[in-house]
Amino acid sequence: MPIAEHLRRWGEMKKGTEFGLKCVLRAKISMTHVNKCMRDPAMYRCKIQTHHKTGDKYKVYPTYDFACPIVDSIEGVTHALRTVEYKDRDQQYNWFIEKLGIRPVHIWSYSRLNMRYTVLSKRKLKAFVEKGTVEGWSDPRFPTVQGVIRRGLRVDALREFILEVGASVNDNMMSWDKVWAINKKKIDPVAHRFLAITENSKVMMTITNFTEPAPVSAAGATAMDVQLHPKDKSIGMKKMAIGDKIWLEAEDASLFTEGEEVTLMRWGNCRITKITKDTAGNVTALEGALNLSGDVKKTKYKVTWLAAAGGGDAKSPESRPVKITCVEFDHLITKPRLEDGDNYNDFVTECSRFETQVLGEAALRKVAVGQLIQLERRGYFRCDVAADQADASAPIVLFNIPTGKKKSMSSVKTKVATKS
Question: Which of 1, 118, 288, 405 has the fewest C-beta atoms under 10 angstroms from its C-beta?
Fold first, then answer.
């Protein structure tokens, strides 16, 4: 074909005409080359779409394979990090650089990091967003940086995981358990501790000797000072409301026997003096007597609790329990690894978000958005929505942070089945 005809067709492409849309500009190499990526690869194609910067000025654009080596060379890239699926295109990359006479770039190939039960394709992730399966690109179930950080992953934990895995040309299929186990080591020494009780599964216990003097009882006090972290007093202190009526988890109450001594976490021991049950055998009420001088190491059960209605200082709004929505997440897909030919829509988890309504101690009102905390015996959480100081009925929203463990932390149930 004459050069003039090539130029004419190129002109049609630049104008975006009907004929130009049928054309493509290729590099003339060899249609019999052993590497199929070298068989006259496309360099420019027409794309009639408004550009976010140049508007409708251009109708023809370079292909990814043609643009990358040029941009890398001109912008001073010394080492191009490319995943192994581009290996066959490396020869094409170097051919363009050589023929254009521009500075060579060293290519460093590595294997893509794949995670079990995780979709990493941007096209598939976009479909989740567009269908409303997730709330956006920062959804905690997404493997995006914003997503995993919103879930509660610390940047230093992510960095440590990547450095530990390292760069390799071998196929990588990693479990999230490793990531979350590293993360737990980072947050455990600094996470503030709080107590909370499941709102629709709680039993009230009346403390019959609450007004008796210390050290056995509380002498009618309305609050006590407790460390925010039991192993590090330097982190700070918090006020905990106490009173003669407290809430306990129904799951815990069902395990008690009369005369048994249990430990109320961060407070002390209490002897169960009376257990009331309904006709179905469910515990409906308890009575107990404090024994704060008792040995916590000798009790079988260490349980979470909450002063009902703010304890002895019920008139103070600041001391009353706060409403919390605890959110747990499951994986978006049900298959550990999608194979070629799998339709990912066939493996989408039907429900991957679970909410539990709980009541938390008053000190949780001071927790800020993004803060990582622990609800004792329930797990680690990241605060996604902080307390609304103007609306006490609006719940705090906490996202559960996985720890990499196969089993839950305690008898407090989880709504998500653990996958490895």
Answer: 1
